[in-house]
Design goal:
Layout: H1 2-15, E1 39-42, H2 44-48, E2 58-61, H3 63-70, H4 75-91, E3 103-107, H5 112-121, E4 134-136, E5 146-153, E6 159-165, H6 172-185, H7 192-210, E7 218-222, H8 225-231
Parallel strand pairs: 3-4
Antiparallel strand pairs: 1-2, 3-5, 5-6, 6-7
Helix pairs in contact: 3-4, 4-5, 4-7
């Protein structure tokens, strides 16, 4: 009898639970996340594999998805999401849909920010560079705390350069303080005040990046594919038009 009561109670609790999908759960503290537009990509192979619903050929990638990929919503996934957004806005008109994986990405920085951009675009590193679509080249000349990104459309080889000037987001002195707190937190050596400061600062910076309030940190401009090919010889040659 007791087992029957437990089963009935469990069923009743299940029925009164709110209908909430994983993407709308309470994992994230930031209430504004649902107001940040997702990036929509065509992905015809999703239909071919049988994993998409009938008639569906696109996939949305949200900032929440980037947070899950990175394990948290700090500056890195926020900056990566914004870089990918600005790149797509530059390379595509409003009535065009980008196709996921149909890109090349070259960056000067081997970092989580770059990996988030790569994840969104669907590009990958490979042992055989001829099969890769994502390249990290630390030899790219960049100023202090500047990270360079080059995004290429495969269909027409239109390319753009995005320079992320991180030093304008967080001054060097504060950057060192935040890094110090983060490193000591891993060893349980931070005070409640330090943790509260770090959390408040991250919250403010992440929201301002995602809302486009920090777009002056991202310099977006066209870049000739021929020059990019000289930088990265593994990129394919231009097709005759």
């Amino acid at each position: 009898m007791r087992n029957i009561f437990i089963i009935l109670f469990s069923c009743a609790m299940f029925l009164i639970q709110p209908s909430v999908s994983f993407s709308q759960d309470s994992q994230w503290r930031y209430s504004y996340l649902d107001s940040i537009p997702s990036l929509k990509f065509l992905n015809p192979e999703g239909q071919l594999s049988g994993s998409y619903a009938v008639g569906k050929e696109d996939i949305d990638i949200s900032i929440k998805d980037c947070g899950k990929y990175a394990g948290q919503l700090c500056i890195c996934p926020a900056a990566g999401f914004r870089i990918a957004t600005l790149g797509i806005e530059f390379l595509f008109s409003e009535d065009e849909f980008p196709t996921r994986s149909e890109f090349y990405l070259i960056t000067s920085k081997d970092h989580m920010v770059s990996d988030v951009v790569a994840c969104i675009l669907g590009v990958n590193r490979r042992i055989d560079n001829k099969k890769a679509t994502y390249f990290v080249d630390p030899a790219i000349l960049a100023k202090h705390r500047e990270w360079h990104y080059y995004i290429v459309r495969k269909d027409n080889m239109k390319a753009c350069q995005i320079i992320y000037v991180k030093r304008k987001l967080i001054p060097d002195e504060e950057n060192e303080r935040l890094k110090n707190i983060e490193e000591r937190h891993e060893k349980s050596r931070t005070s409640d005040e330090e943790e509260a400061y770090f959390s408040r600062r991250m919250s403010t910076l992440v929201e301002s990046i995602l809302r486009g309030e920090k777009d002056h940190l991202f310099i977006v401009k066209p870049f000739a594919y021929e020059k990019l090919k000289e930088m990265c010889p593994y990129l394919p040659g231009l097709k005759s038009r």
